[in-house]
Amino acid sequence: MKSLFLACCLFLTGLAQAAAPSPALLKQVNAFVDGWHDDAAHARMAYFDKIAPDGVYIGTDRGERWERSAFREWARGYFQGKSSAWVFHATQRNVYASGDGKTIWFDELLDTRSLGHCMASGVLRKTAKGFEIVHYQLSIAVPNEIVDKVGAMVKEAEAAGAAAK
């Protein structure tokens, strides 16, 4: 019981250290993440340089948990020789920061060309060189009115051997 109490205290302490970012930090974060999305929209390989060497990108398929180098290699065909890889435009973003401003996390609503509306969350690390993405997770926003149909389609695809990972 003492361990549970201690864990809860540590968790609440962590929450207390979270702060709304200053207007200047918020502007920097939005410019960085928007620029990252713009790199993909224009098929610039610099997109991958904004992900930390130890960064992780989680896509919409359950087998898509990519470390930066593997993600770069997998996505190379979407970028090389193309004018656009994928287009994500944030329509809303909520940004939070640690007390020291070195760790930033956010969630965003995205309008995309190919997937409709999506949601994502990410974690940034502020370094001497600027920001880098440590973790990003993308999900397709499925309206509640059709979630049962989508769920049934997923089960059907899995039963047929799709997404066997």
UniProtKB/TrEMBL annotation:
Residues 1-18 form the signal peptide. This is Nuclear transport factor 2 family protein. Keywords: Signal. Residues 29-143 form the SnoaL-like domain. The lineage of its organism: Bacteria, Pseudomonadati, Pseudomonadota, Betaproteobacteria, Burkholderiales. InterPro entries: NTF2-like_dom_sf, SnoaL-like. It comes from Massilia forsythiae.
